[in-house]
Amino acid sequence: MLTSTALRYFDMIAKGDTASLRQNSIPSLAADFASIENAVKDDQAALAGVKATARPPFLLQAQGSAPIERAEFFCGVFGSKGQTADSAAFVLNNLPPGKYGVVILDAPSAKGAFTASMILQQLGAEWKLGYLYIKSAQSGGHGSDWYAARAREFQGKGQMHDAWLYFLEARNLVSPLPLMSTQATDKLYDESEKLQPADFPAGGKTTDLPAGTATYKLTAIFPEVVGNDLDLIVKYQAADVSNTTTTYSSNVAVMKALLAKYPELRGAFVAVVARAVEPSGRDYGTMLAMKDIK
Description:
Low-confidence stretches: none
Structural class: alpha+beta
Number of helices: 8
CATH architecture of the largest domain: Roll
CATH class of the largest domain: Alpha Beta
Oligomer: single chain
Number of strands: 15
CATH topology of the largest domain: Nuclear Transport Factor 2, Chain: A
Shape: globular
Largest sheet: 5 strands, antiparallel
Helix content: 25-40%
């Protein structure tokens, strides 16, 4: 029933029927459904008419009487070296007690291979949608193995920042869910962990980037596919982004300083997106092609 329910919900996705999908969601998701509607809309052109196939599902049982701040689940058979080909680990934050199912659907389309992953919660006799994540198995026309191979090439050239960022993209592509780890993600993590740059922001730690008379506190640097291009995203702290002219100038200054400090990035990415982020979370971003950052 779990798999058949997920396939029925996928048919709604393929038809763009978000109204029915919302009616079959848990109350908290149905009350705040915009992100799901946007995800379905973004990928409907690729998924229209597609018939999905389900992988073996995972069942998760959250015990207790209060939400679990960090719920960890280890599913399948684990060996002496950790995960096996059929195992998976999940980390879900603030998870209410209940019975859940994770179903991953493979959806091959004319625009490439996609996965639609659902977390369903059992309410009474029915499985309701609690989470939906749709992703392409490729970015910029390439899969995980390609990015991992390029990362090793960068590593061989001593371009460790490029290598780290390409390993991040490889890990992102190899798992259908950001909250799921597998044998493949663990292998890439083990291979790339030693390459994590000490001068990049990570784990809530900021790094300083001097730019002329100013110093910017970077909060994140990561790769992201925009269209068919792999771009570099850099986020930094800003007190106020309401003056877009001033913020644009700061964004450009951050881009120039970043590439001056790490010139190797020019050959690995098509563009840079700098995002100034207020304490409230409001941000303002600017994108420039590498050739336009001088």
